[in-house]
Amino acid sequence: MLHLALVLALGVQADDTLVLDGKTWRLLDGVVAQAGDAVVTRSELEQQAQRLLEASRRPDRELEPAEYEELMGVTLYQQLLAMLEAQGGEDLGLAPQDIARIVRVEQREERLQRGAGGFSDLLRQGGSDALDWEHQRGRMILRRIWRDHVLGRRGFGLERARRDEFLRPGKMLAIYRSQGEALGKPTRLRFQEVLIGIRGDDPVATLEYAELIREDVLTGRTSFDLLATQFNPPQRAEERGLTPTFTLDELADPEVRAFARQGSEGDISEPIEVWIRREGVPDPILAAYRLLKIVEYEAGEPPPPFYDAELQAFLRDRIAEVERERLLFTQQRRLFDRAYAWVRPGTPEPLPPAPPQSLTPRRAPEEPTSGS
Question: Which of 101, 116, 237, 292 has its Cβ near the most Cβ atoms within 10 Å?
């Protein structure tokens, strides 16, 4: 470890060579980053990135360059953070023999739970042996201890735990009032869409034409299904203009959301202006209108009353969990910012996750149309 840190300090060339005492040395595995007194090699980074890709159930998907760089950045941040957390646990001054004792206990429990054959299979799947498992488990224990410490759950020596996790009823009620709607069953609906392109560079004529088409559907002179195959782009026409299922909160367009709130199954919207995007930017030349028909509508339910016993238990546990996540995120960022960390030029920058935001995580808003 000290040798690798010395290598970093002296400077490694772009081709993984190092000139030292007039001699050129070639590294067998290039170092891409350093965190405190630990390093990340290129093979470790690539192997962990592959594990993350397999965990996402997309191992065979070809990633775009930007997606690959993002994956490597996320992976590198996780690896550096794991090293810094373990070093933070070491800095608390626990005796190494105490950590080793905990590791032996956990290993014995793991063997009893899995059996001798199952434990051997576990090591084989991870490409490690018992000594490597003990080392990794020791690092995990140090990380747990550091997290407990910064969360105020654990004191050392004569130090008391520093954080009171008691949740005041007034705070719980305030959160319920501001986010309680998300605790109910959301209204879910699905649209069928007809996209009407600009006619003769005249938005007014296009709007009038869209209104005429809507009138033809309402009076039975044509069907919405037929229009969806005639007007939509080829791929959307094959799908009959059907969209995914959305909740009201996931509808980003205010006009679409207003129509969905007031409508019911079978209703057809007034023409709604939409901008077609070209390379991610709205193109005014491609402005158009769309008609939406609600083809599926599942009414939501209001959240339980605040004093419902099950809701109280959920709120208490979930709010405490979110607060721990936010505090841990802050402490992790502080640890990362204050520690010595070096990333080799040309390596994707470590990419931290977004901070925890709300009581109930939601899917990112989407538009009903693929072109808007």
Answer: 292
